[in-house]
Structure formats: structure tokens, C-alpha cells
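Aim 2, interim progress: modelling of the FE2/S2 (inorganic) cluster-bound target.
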Amino acid sequence: MRVIVDDSDVDVQAGTTVLQAVRLSGGFVPTLCFDERQEPFGACRVCMVGVRGASGPLPACTTLCRDGMVIDTRDETARRIAAATVELVLSELPQPPGEGTELAAIARDLGVEGELRWPGAVHERREDLRHPYLALRQELCISCGRCVRACDEVQGAFALTAVGRGFDANIAAGMDQGFRDSTCVSCGACADTCPTDAITEISLLAMIER
Ligand code: SF4
Ligand code: FES
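Predicted structure of the complex, ligand included:
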């Protein structure tokens, strides 16, 4: 079937997501909870796009293409929703995300910079640096779930769990006893996928702004 992404025709197979079609076209949509090595999760609502005839913007990572679909990656409402979502996420962090993180890059793309409109409660610092290779800085966790899925789907170690709700949502290693005493096999898949460096290699911490 054929879809149109920002005026480009793209031939796609049945089952192709809008995000895949956008990428096939050479276009770009910011994503936060998506990692192409994992099944789409559809949790963050940052990958919003306009679709002609739809009642509102749709998440690109979980929406399947239909023949003749007309997709607008620059749709103003979609970009506004994505920017507001990222701004809310940033407002809960005790410090801006490191320049090199995915979250910082997405914020730049969406124009979310400078003073935030909704200052409020921020996460308290809670670091676990006991593991020889992996650092967990829970205050930087945005609950995207990518590390949990990497651990389950990619490595099959099941060492990480999503815990808490709303503002208190976070992740825990093992029964919250930390990486060192969990079933972690030190593969680093969680650090590799984390978009905020909440989990990172301990050897890199010295090079990251903290
Ligand atoms: S630690 Fe990182 S990858 Fe895991 S849920 Fe938090 S932000 Fe997402
Ligand atoms: S990247 Fe699509 S909902 Fe998060």
C-alpha cells in the first residue's frame, strides 16, 4: 500500500507503523518511550503526528498505516502536544538532562528550552552507585520503561521492575535492593537504551554533568 508523508509517497507493507513509514521517507518524528529494538509501548505521546481525516493527532509508534493515509510530521497541534509533554517531564527533574541524552535532543527539536512554564515538585536525588559497572540515578528516571523492556525482551534477565504511580513512578532493580544484589547480568542493555542517563555506565559518570 502507499501512504504520503509530508508530500512524499512511501510504499509500505501491511503492518507498518506510521513511525516506520516516516523513517522510510527520510522524515523525523521525536520519540521518547520508543526503541526500535523493542516492541512499541505507546506510553509517552511524544511521537504525535497529524493524519488527514483523524479527529486529532495520533501516536506514530503504535498507529498502523492505512492505504492512502496522509501523514503530517509538522502538524502544529501534534508538535504542541509533544512539546507540552516533554516540558512536563522536564519539570519533574532536579536538573536538566545531560546535553548528550536523547531527552535533551528531543527537547531541543521541540523548542522546549529555557524557563519551564510549570515549575513544581521535583524528584529527590536517590543514587545507587554500589554496582561495579552500572549507576542508577532514580531522580532522572522518567518512567519510559525502556530499561525494563530491554532487560526482559533483549536480555531475558528480568532484573528491573516498574514501580510506583504518577509522580512516584520509577524503576527498581530486583526487589529494590539495587543492581548489585538483583539478577542483573551486567549486560548494559538498560544503560544503552535509557534516554536520560538515569541508568548509565559508572565509568561514564565522571564525564557527565551532574
Ligand atoms: S531508568 Fe531510564 S530507561 Fe528506565 S524507565 Fe527510567 S528513564 Fe526510562
Ligand atoms: S514514542 Fe510513541 S508513544 Fe512514546
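The mean pLDDT is 93. The two ends are 48 Å apart (CA to CA).
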